[in-house]
Amino acid sequence: MGLVIAIDAGGTKTDCLIGTTQGEILAKSVSGPANYQLVGIDGVLRVISELLRATDDYWSHERHGFEVMWIGIAGVDRPGEREQVAMSLRNLGAASKVIVDNDAMIALASGTMGKPGIVVIAGTGSIAFGVNGEGKRTRAGGWGYILGDEGSAYYIGHSALNQVTRAQDGRGQPTLLAQAIIDHFGIDSIDGLVGLAYTGKLDRIDIAGLSPLVAEAAKEGDETACRILDSAGAELGIAAGAVAKALNMERSAFPCVTTGGVFKSGKAVTYALMRELAKVAPMSHLVEPEFPPVVGAYFMGIRELGQEIDEDVRERARTSLAGLKFSASCLEED
Hints:
Layout: E1 3-9, E2 14-20, E3 25-31, H1 36-53, E4 66-73, H2 79-90, E5 95-102, H3 103-112, E6 117-122, E7 126-131, E8 137-141, H4 144-147, H5 153-169, H6 177-185, H7 192-197, H8 204-208, H9 211-219, H10 223-246, E9 255-259, H11 267-280, E10 285-287, H12 293-304, H13 311-322, E11 327-328
Parallel strand pairs: 1-4, 3-11, 4-5, 6-9, 9-10
Antiparallel strand pairs: 1-2, 2-3, 6-7, 7-8
Helix pairs in contact: 1-2, 3-12, 5-10, 9-10, 10-11
């Protein structure tokens, strides 16, 4: 029975799955961060080497327990970087075949089972990424919070701050966000934001953390909050549309997969996203993935071995995954 090891190496944590080519997931574990841009090649190798040591029930140098190792790594965006990481991992001798790609690819696969489509990722940052039927790929966004990240949690939080200061001046309409932000930061008034913003006490994560406040205010009918969420969704849809154009997918029926914390804000974001995307690709349709990205890597590994991801494979993955708990491997910092 052939085995696949799948890894989602992110900036916060690294998820790992081991499963058969028929969809049965046997084990899963979680480790520390392995974003290539943050920890470098040595950090990536350290995390994955420790994960392999924690899975030695399934492999050894004497018997290649894994037919394929499929890894999605945050921060690996260029072919040269992917090959450098793959070559180093091949030297570990854990798998007959090692495939390295970026984390957007496995996020897409978690919703499309490895087939063509577009994924929109909107968390603290944002990016749209797609692959067409010919295997061509491209991306839009992902420029970071200074240069872009439109539609992200940071974008939403920053928009909220802008709107409450405009309301304070009388340049904008009153909004529930003002009191929500005052309470959130424990300040006396909106004027207190100045001290937070310009003394280094208000960073990118703090601003992104305001996104749930906007979602809550929108649920209460606040017009300003509703406009912010609509604008965020529209920006994400424009990015997805740019990807569709670049890949000549305007007349194709393809899934648009959504993932990331921003999509917990409610239907306002996804509605605006699909409204804008439909202007470019009217036959596209929304997909909310039922599997996490690491399962996308697992599905890609299965496809690499020539096995299609049919409903039987998905059902076995669904059932076996539900019966497992992530276990921490021996990866804590010394």
